[in-house]
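Duplicate of #3305? Posting structure anyway:
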């Protein structure tokens, strides 16, 4: 029997992964409709982050920006991935993905190239947040996980501020006030099974690696979003009002 969530989720993501072209793997600094780094809202955030940073280097500025976003952009369950960073800042609320897009916009503004890795995450990853309605969560959720070109190599968003592992406060459990976005500042999670430690090894939830894209705009244009457009139209206005 076909589940309701399967009908609401684009079918073509049943396909396997892809490596991505050299251009896609090398990322970009360019503004995009989602990563609108030239908008007034993003530029104001960058200026604030630079003023608050504990040092002049890019990582310090990104850490300051992450803290501002964490404190001022309320986490919600929004489902429309195509929202520009500037609009998320104006709303003062956004999903993990939308808030990560703001951090990517900041990175590109200060000269740090970014790219995304498209992962299909099993719905059981979100069961702690939806204990009573886990059956309604889409079977697979598309996660555009950012990477940042820093110090001669690529850093996953989860390892932006430290190596694999959690810096105090216990493991990441994906419930309560700490979402994936908050965890970036405290807990470097592992999507690849390198750590072999269940406290931060989340590779057991990865159902497919769909490869690298120069930006999340391209990823969503090629792969679609987790929910189809009619489902997003119906559900996003409701979910974006619910605190994560």
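Output from current build:
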């Amino acid at each position: 029997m076909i589940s309701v969530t399967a009908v609401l989720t684009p079918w073509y993501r049943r396909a396997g992964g892809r490596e991505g072209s050299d251009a896609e793997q090398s990322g970009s600094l360019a503004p995009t409709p989602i990563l609108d780094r030239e908008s007034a809202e993003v530029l104001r955030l960058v200026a604030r982050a630079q003023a608050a940073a504990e040092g002049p280097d890019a990582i310090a500025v990104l850490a300051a920006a992450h803290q501002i976003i964490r404190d001022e952009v309320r986490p919600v369950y929004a489902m429309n991935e195509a929202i520009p960073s500037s609009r998320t800042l104006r709303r003062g609320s956004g999903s993990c993905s939308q808030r990560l897009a703001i951090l990517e916009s900041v990175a590109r503004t200060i000269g740090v190239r970014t790219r995304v890795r498209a992962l299909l995450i099993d719905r059981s990853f979100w069961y702690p947040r939806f204990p009573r309605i886990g059956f309604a969560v889409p079977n697979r959720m598309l996660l555009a996980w950012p990477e940042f070109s820093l110090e001669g190599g690529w850093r996953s968003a989860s390892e932006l501020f430290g190596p694999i592992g959690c810096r105090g406060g216990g493991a990441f459990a994906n419930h309560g006030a700490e979402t994936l976005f908050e965890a970036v500042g405290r807990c470097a999670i592992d999507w690849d099974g390198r750590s072999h430690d269940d406290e931060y090894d989340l590779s057991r939830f990865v159902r497919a690696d769909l490869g690298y894209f120069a930006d999340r705009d391209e990823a969503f244009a090629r792969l679609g979003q987790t929910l189809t457009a009619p489902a997003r139209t119906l559900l996003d206005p409701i979910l974006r009002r619910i605190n994560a």
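Confirmed duplicate; merging threads. The chain has a mean pLDDT of 84. The radius of gyration is 17 Å.
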